[in-house]
Amino acid sequence: MGGAMPTPDMETYSQYLKERSISGFLYRKYYLYPKLARKLTGKVLDYGCGIGDFVQFRPNTIGVDINTHNVDYCRHRGLEAGLIEDNHIPFADCSFDGVMLDNVLEHIPGEAVDSVIEEIKRVLKTGGTLVVGVPGLKGYESDRDHKVYYSEESLLSLFLRHGFESRELFKMPVASKKFEHILRQFCVYAVFTLKNARKPA
pTM of this prediction? Predict the structure, then answer.
């Protein structure tokens, strides 16, 4: 992650995101996104927004991504999206009431994850909501770009260490963890509250 310059791999990955299946698109639009959106209020940042499906789905949502191809595609769709460069989110401190981090964390190398979370904290207000989704084993193993697998325990531990308070843990599209070995779409979602945000300058 971070501020790497665009590469052919980024272009390839952006194209891969556009080739989502109809069934996957319908699942997200009519089942997953409505549930995630209910966890969030106010102005929301979709970190690692990809091609902007959640930004389009939820009003008052802005996307950011490290991939210039994704950002350009979002803007072409008429969506508001910014580019993450050198791990910097292009918004002021305490700009957002909520942040979405859906199927992004597992793409971030372990040595970079702390700085990414601290940058997310910078733009989130005190009492703001962070929704994080990570894939189960089947989904994790299906993408060569995945860097780190997160269990429920390691996911919670990571964000508690960064000053977040755990509010809720749930699984999609089914509640039983045994499906993480079967369904590629199976994900664990955690909802956190930021206890103490950075004061705006």
Answer: 0.89
